[in-house]
Amino acid sequence: MGNTVTVLMRKAPYGSVYTAEGFRSMMGIGVFEMDISVLFVDDGVYALVKGQNPEALDMKPLGDGFPMLPEFGVTKFYVHDRSLSERGLTPDNLVMDVEIVDDAGAARIMEASGIVLPF
Amino acid sequence: MLYTINKSPLMFGNLKSVLRIAPEGEPVLLYEDGVYAAAAGAASEELARQTLARHPVYALQADLEARGLTSPIEGIRAVGYDGFVELVEQHHVVPWL
Fold first, then answer.
1. B39 to chain A: which residues are within 8 Å by CB?
2. Phi and psi torsions of B79, nearest 5°
3. Exposure of A2 by Cβ count < 10 A (0-12 exposed, 13-18 middle, 19+ buried)?
4. Are B18 and B45 in contact (CB under 8 A)?
5. Which domains occur in chain B, in start order?
6. Which residues of B53-97 form beta strands (DSSP E)?
7. A119, A8 contact by CB (below 8 A)
8. A102 within 8 A of B58, measured Cβ to Cβ
9. Quick one: pLDDT at residue A52?
10. What is the pLDDT of residues A97-112, one digit of tens each?
11. What is A5-118's CATH number?
12. Across the interface, which of B32, B40, B43 has its CB nearest the CB of A86?
């Protein structure tokens, strides 16, 4: 296990605070120049879907923030392929370029990290 | 009775159990993460179609828009907050949390 952090995103946005809090953590970890990977699995992939408009909920569009994270030193984004396809989505539906990983690839990312932070 | 569902169909069994228990013809309202059941092409689409075959299905417009679900599965009726209130006035509510 290396000295890196994997932020594991498994929840859909808006239904809970997890996506927003996960995003906040990514910024914080990035600013402190720690090695960080972000992995989207299950409903977590919905956080990256294009076209979110939560104006009627009086909330901020959560998807828009992720493409700005590289400016904070967060550059490694991974999306679990099966989680995406089960939801009828492809990489074209996402707000940014990410690396698509299979089951074993997702496990390897977490194994390579010292810490997995779940959201 | 109006069955209301706010959980994602691929993470929780709420819609599946409503489908088992709700008598045919009773309305089902999807809101919050429940609206993901309206996503076309998802692994839950068959479940949504089974629900539509037995129940009128509504989805809260604000929650669809927030999640980028601009074209819900055909037959699912998008409603605003006013439609939500109307449904609640017309039916006893079973909140399937």
1. 87-88
2. -130, 150
3. exposed
4. no
5. 2-95 (3.40.1260.10)
6. 57-60, 77-79, 93-95
7. yes
8. no
9. 98
10. 999 999 999 999 999 9
11. 3.40.1260.10
12. B43
